[in-house]
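Archive entry: two folds, one per protein. Generate the first.
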Amino acid sequence: MNALPLPVSLAAVAEPAAQSGNLNALAEKFSRLMEGSAPPSAAEVSPDSTVGNALLHQDESMRKSLQDMHALAHAQKDGSLNDIDLTSRQVELMYRMSTAQFQFNAMVYLAQGAKSGLQTLMRNQ
């Protein structure tokens, strides 16, 4: 199974953004997030960044899991799998979906922590 290595510190996520040198664009994105407007488009998420790679991997993993679920449903309707194979594939899919959900929740909590830290930093300025 391909496990997504999650960053363990906020510094690891912030390094690519800090090194980009385009602080005005980052400030505008932050202002837009603080105002509650629409999230940045997919074009604004750099695939070279740690967060961009994590999001792309998560999206790919979820799409593959959904495709596998549809394939399993069709195989079940066709009767092409015996009970043992069907059960083992269901357990495998449940494990993959649980892992994907855990990774998604970890990324959400990481993003919320970063947002909270930035809000505190901006309030203290």
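Generate the second and append.
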Amino acid sequence: MALALAPAAMANDFTFAQAGLKIDLPNGFSLLPRADIDQLYMPTRGPGFVIGNAARSVTVSYDLKAHDLASFNLAQTLKVFQQIFEQRVPGLVWKEGKLLEHEKQQWMQLEFLSKTGGVEYYNIMLVTAIKDQMLVLNLNSTVAEFPQAEASLRAVMKSIALNVAVPEIVVNPAPSKKPLPVKK
């Protein structure tokens, strides 16, 4: 999966063409290289893309998974997610699990604490159906930094825009077969 970031008016607007998704991020956030993502997450479970602050203590991850949620009841799916997380997420402490509507779309919102490599994280996970796939956004921060990061992370949530048209950028277009008009 290739990342397509559209040119943006502000440096903190990121557009993910694969999902038609645009989010506004706090200043100073940048795209993490794959090696950093693999360090922060289990390599087989890591998201496709992560954008974070310089210290990598506050991140927003994005992934598009080949699971068609559109035909599922999201209230039931939310309960299933919670059961799976209880089995698989180390140090899990639930803060909230609910459905919400944003951008005329129903989302699952899961908020929880987790522990990875001895560090405790506050996670805000948002999941919805996009076409025949599952869009997953995880906004997280170390628990120690969460009080300072919470307002910014909640602003990212509010900034989510779907069905964003991303202009196609043509590199090295094929030459026109039509002759150019000649000025007389």
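Annotation attached to the second fold: The chain has three helices and nine strands. The two ends are 50 Å apart (CA to CA).
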